[in-house]
Amino acid sequence: MQSNTALLIIDVQMAMFADSDPVYQGEALLAKLSQLIDKARTAGIPVIFIQHNTGQSGDLAEGSPEWQIHPDITPMPGEVIVHKRHPDSFQDTILQTELKKKGITHLIIAGIQTEFCIDTTCRRAYSLGYEAILVKDAHSTWDTKVLKAQQIIDHHNLVLGDWFAKPQTADEIDI
Question: Rounded to an integer, what distance in angstroms lies between the CA atom of residue 9 and that of residue 36?
Fold first, then answer.
C-alpha cells in the first residue's frame, strides 16, 4: 500500500452495539476492523477515527459512555480523532485538513452506518479527488422497514463500487 494512504474508521461507537438494538453482525465487524487497524499500524499507515457527535443530548451525546469509540478498536495516542455532526465525515470537520497535512490521496473506508455515513463519505471523498477503497465486509447498518441490513450492505457495495470507491474485502486489502 502506498504511503499516501489512510484508514478511516467511521462511527464505531458504543451506542452502535447496545444490547437493545446492536448493529448487524457487530462482533464480526469489530474483528475485521481490528484486523485492518493492526495491518495499518504495522505498515505505518495512519488510522483516522471518525466520531459522530449529537451535541449534549441523544445516543451520541459528546462525552457520554455511548459516544465513546468501541474499546476493541481504541485509538492509540497520537492517532487523529475527527468529530462530526453530519453523515459526511468531511463536512465541518478537520478531516480534509488532516489528510492534506499528511499528504493522503488514498483512503480505505470502513465502519458504520452503511447507507448514511459510509455512503456519504465515499461519495464526498470521490468528489474531492481521493481514490477510495470501500471495505465491503467491514461496514454495517441495521434492518429497516424496507430492507434487511445485509441487503443494504450489498446494495451499497454495488452502487458505490460503480463510481465512488473500489470495493474490496478486508483480506484483499494489501497494506
Answer: 10
